[in-house]
Design a protein that fits this description.
It is built from three helices and five strands, in the order ββββαβαα. It is an alpha+beta fold.
């Protein structure tokens, strides 16, 4: 079913972190990412769960599919992190599949699915911090070895008591 609304996602970046390529926003703390409607496809199917007499007549469950590979507004790094996110489900064609059965209303479920997609893209847009290699300090090494020696002497003292016969 066509949904001619583009999905606008507000991305927030911590100060001092690199911003995505092509971002020229004046606000240093946020950027706007727009996913075109042509990259989003959704279908409505019958939803499981409660619904009374209406449950078999109304298609309220929403299946939203986002073609990650075809989307030009998302950088390659964000696409890669989006694929690696836990909880992200992809179909055989490589499209991200998001379902929503939160309400009994089709339009509200569509809005919920779009919000879930926005949250996933927001999570993928955050570049993970690189780990900085660190070494233990000399004092911490000394303290560790001192405790190790003290523990070893405690355990050594637990042996059988020698008798002088």
């Amino acid at each position: 079913m066509p949904d001619d609304r583009d999905l606008e996602i507000e991305l927030e970046f911590p100060l001092g972190r690199p911003r995505p390529a092509g971002d020229t926003g004046a606000d240093m703390g946020a950027a706007r990412l727009v996913i075109p409607a042509r990259d989003l496809q959704w279908t409505a199917v019958r939803s499981p769960g409660p619904g009374g007499q209406n449950v078999n007549k109304v298609a309220s469950k929403v299946d939203l599919r986002f073609d990650v590979n075809a989307c030009e507004s998302i950088s390659a790094a964000i696409k890669q992190r989006l694929r690696a996110l836990p909880g992200a489900r992809f179909d055989a064609e490589g499209r991200l599949v998001i379902t929503s059965t939160a309400t009994r209303n089709q339009s509200r479920n569509l809005d919920d699915a779009r919000a879930k997609l926005a949250a996933l893209v927001r999570a993928a847009a955050v570049e993970p911090k690189r780990r900085r290699k660190t070494r233990p300090s000399t004092g911490s090494k000394r303290r560790r070895l001192d405790t190790k020696r003290a523990r070893a002497s405690t355990k050594a003292a637990r042996g059988r008591v020698a008798t002088d016969d």
